[in-house]
Amino acid sequence: MSKPPFPPRHPPAGRGVPGLAARALAAKAVAGVLGQDQALEDAFDDASLEARDLALARMIAGVSMRRYGTIGTLLEKLLAKGMPRKSGPLEAILITAAAQILFLDVPDRAAVDLAVRLARGDDRAQAFSGLANAVLRKISAGKEELLAAIPPEADTPSWLYKRWSAQYGEATAAAMAAAQRVEPSLDLTVKADAAGWAERLGGRLLPTGSVRLAHNGPIRALEGYEAGAWWVQDAAAALPARLLGDVAGRRVADLCAAPGGKTAQIAAAGATVTAVDRSAARLQRLGENLKRLDLKAEVVTADILAWKAEPFDAVILDAPCSATGTIRRHPDVAWSKSARDIGAVADLQRRMLGRMAGLVKPGGLLVYCTCSLEQEEGEAQIARFLEGNADFALEPVLPDDIGGIEGAITPGGMLRTLPSLLPDPDPVMAGMDGFFAARMRRKG
Ligand SMILES: C[S@@+](CC[C@H](N)C(=O)[O-])C[C@H]1O[C@@H](n2cnc3c(N)ncnc32)[C@H](O)[C@@H]1O
Predict the structure, then answer these.
(1) Which domains does the chain have, with CATH numbers?
(2) Active site residues
(3) What predicted TM-score, i.e. pTM, was given to this entire model?
(4) Number of the ligand 1 atom closest to the C-alpha atom of 241
(5) From the alpha carbon of 279, which atom of ligand 1 is closest?
(6) Which end of the chain is more exposed for a tag (fewer CB within 10 A), N or C?
(7) Where does the record place the catalytic residues (predicted)?
């Protein structure tokens, strides 16, 4: 599908028409991802909507991106002449309206009417408001039949699906694509008494130690948030720091640390942590998170490609990556990345890893991790690192390190979680992000 032109000129706020402002914001957010590679979440940062409308806009935009492949295929089928050119926000309006009709509990009539109003309110889209009305009514009238003709993998970009089939095999790629179509649960890492918090919050204690809740409302309203008893962290994201073992009393460097999920884990485990990140804004969030959790770390704003320090007992490097493992939580990532991005981040990761040897004491541990499903950013990086650093040896991940999920350990002894792991009869309670981690020890 073509990308919507920019900037979309949406009507001011649709004052007086209930629900219009939420739809306008959802369409703007989707247009931002598709046309400008903006992160979906950034669209909601400065939005001045009431909490209810903001939540609705987020939900509509989220499902629009999660099911963008399906919706795009349908629109291509129904628009005989393709998406009209120079139609401004029309495409984003259609995508977000189709998402409501097909996947949300919103009256179809309201979704269609508000989409037509939005189109009429934009000088580039208004000529196509009749077309929008006709297409959306067709979707509403034939939804079951239209959806039945689209395969589940349509919601994963084909370049990515091909890579996953080649890396993991067709059946696993299909299971991963299917898992990403479901809005995931909320996972928490707790400071202490995970079983007690699972019970108190009506959640479930996972074998890995995380607490899982079927919750998609505001986080701050949950018990224990203000008291700093837990933080939000996908079950898979909580595993790499566990590979450091017992860090109590150790000096540990957390590199590429913000917003601090792993810093909090390591500090809560009793280590003296140095958290390094080059983004001051993200480190500010790390500071706020640690303050709420009543945890401490030395915080350093620096580029780790240049940063020097006395060697540590252990180092964890959570390198910047293509983030393809986070698509179930951030479905926009699927549509804003390309194969080229993988090559670029892999090169940066290689350079970062190249500096790690000097930061680990003899006998100390190095854990490298990324939230990517791409082997160039994982297994291949470690193979290259070990080839060039004979004083490091892989220390294989053991089932006990990760709550016994043997399916997450590669034949080579590295951690490789997939969205299709942790199956559950309730799809919302299933799955985990795609993460890679390897543990290496520097010879003493
Ligand atoms: C995957 S995120 C880290 C997530 C974090 N470890 C956590 O668990 O919450 C990657 C981080 O790398 C940081 N980063 C990217 N390039 C960097 C560099 N050259 N030096 C230091 N930090 C960098 C980014 O600012 C970003 O915060």
Answers:
(1) 20-150 (1.10.940.10), 186-442 (3.40.50.150)
(2) 371
(3) 0.93
(4) 8
(5) 25
(6) C
(7) 371 (nucleophile)
